[in-house]
Request: fold
Amino acid sequence: MDPTQTVITRTARWGRALVLLLCLPILSSCYYMQAASGHMELMREREPIVAILDDAETDPELKRRLELVQLAREFSIDVLKLPDNDSYRTYAELNRPYVLWSLFAAPEYSLQPKRWCYPFLGCLAYRGYFSHETVLKKAARLREQGLDTAVGGVAAYSTLGRFADPVVDTMMRWDDARLVGTLFHELAHQVVYISDDTMFNESFASAVEDLGVERWLADDPDQIRAFRRRKESEAEILALVDSARDDLEALYAEMPVDVAGQKRERLKTLSEDVAALLASRGLPATHWLVGDIGNAHLVPLALYDGLVPAFREIFARCDEEFDCLYAETKRLGGLPAEARDAELEGLMRAASAPAASSNDRRDAQPGTGSPDSPPAH
Reply:
């Protein structure tokens, strides 16, 4: 894996945002109409990967990548115990930069994201548009209402398995590990998805992605080292973001006279710190947080990685068995929100504690991770 070809943080997790774009006859708003139209266009462009591989005129590099997809898809079933269905068995060539664009928004002096609610999915902290022009217009309207906004291109597509989601040509610019990881991430959403808890859903899928890629690369020392270096870089950037969030939350709670100036300076410092970190790693400053940023740019990071350590803790307590991880995650997802959050808080504390011995982890069985339970260390 060439880390210079990879966005080294999940700030771009919107690059594979979950978008169930179902248009029901009773839903006639412009948003749902554009969503349905874009979805149907994408579905029309699908071709079976097997047929593309059998075509003698298929570009050799595309053939290699699609063969990789096939291998990863079988690995996802046999090793990771992810769904065996028609998802990612087809390929769609759209010949545009992104499948769609995601819009994030947050108040001028708050890090709480604006939420939109959808049929089946519940409420999410972003909205997807198939037209770049349209999303920019929507962002401008929100700014007129006093909101910070951020727009990011979406390179992959998921409908939670309700349709046979294709691999898309926009995914082909990723390196092999990220391409494979994206498949694991999206398939994980088909295993567990609960309404109105984006952080839970995305952190679980992110954990499955990471654990899956680690298994996938286990026999390739060079690639696993590169993958771990990327994870270290991600963790460093997330630490910078966490520090900035703490400072901004304190600032917004106090609301001093010069709050606007202090906000601007803190976000500028964050952007500069991220750029400096990338430079120190010999990586290009092509990053979601480099440049002119606002509160909305911090939204995806809080949503997509916040609980990953908790799911890794569950996996460790499950003796690294994926079926157990999924069963325990489903159990957590079925709890009332307050009880679920309490267990996750306990798991997060356990994950941050000193490394546990194997015997200690076996003693701390899944389902005992409430704050009142002893941490598994």
The chain has a mean pLDDT of 87.
